[in-house]
Amino acid sequence: MITELAAVALAAASPWARDWWVGLCERYTEPQMVIGGTFVSLVVGYALGCMPYVLLDWLRWPPAAAYKLQPSRYVSRRVALHTSAYVLFLFVCVMLPLIVVGSGALSLLGVTLDPDRLPSAGTIAVQTAYFFLVEDFGNYWLHRALHTPWLYQAVHRVHHEHDAPFALAATYAHPVEVVVLGLPTFAGPLAVGPHLLTLWVWVLLRNYEAIDIHSGYELPAAANRVAGWIAGAAHHDYHHAHYSGNFASVFTWCDRLYGTSIGFEALQARKAAAAAKQGKLA
Ligand SMILES: [Zn+2]
Ligand SMILES: [Zn+2]
pLDDT tens, 202-232? Predict the structure, then answer.
């Protein structure tokens, strides 16, 4: 998935990408591109991003099971179907209207479809990195607010129905939470006014990041294994299992700075010490 997105980003600088974009602009109107294209990026990205993890859960393939964060906690088919239906409801009845409303603001604040201003891969990389920083900081504080007693009971409790998260549950939340947490997702693009192609890449990446941290797996290729500043699946899995701590979703900086990952870090240290002890005994 990440490789495909990188390919799209790299292709953005090529003449092929320009021809493809011109073709899209000739075939579709601006509202169809902004609303329809963004919505399709959201839904297709969610389906493609979830698919590998759904297969891993379904097949219970032993080599992959070794990387499952809560080894015995597989989602049942009934819960997976219910979650998929509810997420589909959120896409159609909450996120699509949000995109329709937000599209006016995006156009006003400079989101462009101009083929002559198609972004280079470097521009896409720099802008999406900035969007991730804005997303992470905003999401951290809004998520902490959702853990205050009243907001937790009234809103955030729905997302925490799953104490062993799985990919399909990444967006499983109260509609109010979907709207509130959509603010930091679109705050970066609203501030920058990027090209629509960059916005689509951002929607795909943000979607995939949410799916990955809820997947229940920390696979060998997980980025956080080599970059400790990336939160990753184990970080957010701890939040669901303990209902507190590790409020950030993308990076570990906020939780470290504000002291909300102390329990998680102590647990990781105990696990590392136990593994080292086992290694010495073997
Ligand atoms: Zn939470
Ligand atoms: Zn979550």
Answer: 999 999 999 999 999 988 888 888 888 999 9
30-78 pLDDT, tens digit each? 889 999 999 998 998 899 999 999 999 888 888 888 889 988 888 888 9
Asked if 43 and 140 count as a contact pair (C-beta separation under 8 A), the reply is no
Residue 261 token pair: 């990952």
Q: How far is the CA of 65 from the centre of ligand 2 (A)?
A: 21
Classify residue 7 by its DSSP letter. Answer: H
Distance between Cα 87 and ligand 2 center (Å): 14
Phi/psi for 6 (5° steps) reads: -60, -40
- Written in H, E and C, the secondary structure of 135-183 is HHHHHHHHHHHHCCHHHHHHCHHHHHHCCCCCHHHHHCCCHHHHHHHHH
Boundaries of every domain in the chain = 2-219
Q: Which two tokens stand for residue 31?
A: 């509202």
Question: Relative to the alpha carbon of 167, which ligand is closest?
Answer: 2
